[in-house]
Amino acid sequence: MRSVINDISPGRLHAIELCLAERDSLRRYVKSLVGWDAFAVEDVVQETLLRAWQQAETLDWESRPIRMWLFRVARNLVVDQHRRAQRTVPSGLSQADFETTISAPDPADEITDRRVLVDALRRLSPAHREVVIRVHLCGQPGEDVAMALDVPIGTVKSRTHTAVRALRADLLRRGWGEAAA
């Protein structure tokens, strides 16, 4: 071990001392960039210190603070890793596999649609509203609705037809043409 240290030039030995003094602050800085992944942090720190070791003869260690150089190299390494991760495509998949993916509807749109529908239903008469809710929202057959409300099946059909037309007209008036059609 002593012979290895004796073979190191005084410039490189001074560089090692300066880098080791900055190692903890460099590790904290890299952790702030990549998060709590200890392996990723160590990889970046080690690669940064290796590059400092490789550039030891060409860097100006006296007139410039080395910390800024180390932080810049570490930041560039993190950016490079991030770019590489963004470019990778899992094996066995192609671009066409991603194009056919069906996206889920936005929950905010569903809430807005539901709110508009509830407001439109409130503007119907109670008899029409009950028939539409039972037939279209609950999926009950017309005959069952007629028996539950104690009205003829023709009345259920008429109320359903009238209520759907009124809902459609109300939604069109409010600018919800696609939803009403």
From TrEMBL:
One of its GO terms (molecular function) is DNA binding. The keyword Transcription regulation applies. The keyword Transcription regulation applies. InterPro entries: RNA_pol_sigma-70-like, RNA_pol_sigma-70_dom, RNA_pol_sigma70_r2, RNA_pol_sigma70_r4, RNA_pol_sigma_r2, RNA_pol_sigma_r3/r4-like, WH-like_DNA-bd_sf. It holds the Pfam family Sigma70_r2. GO terms for biological process: DNA-templated transcription initiation. Belongs to the sigma-70 factor family. ECF subfamily. This is RNA polymerase sigma-70 factor (ECF subfamily).
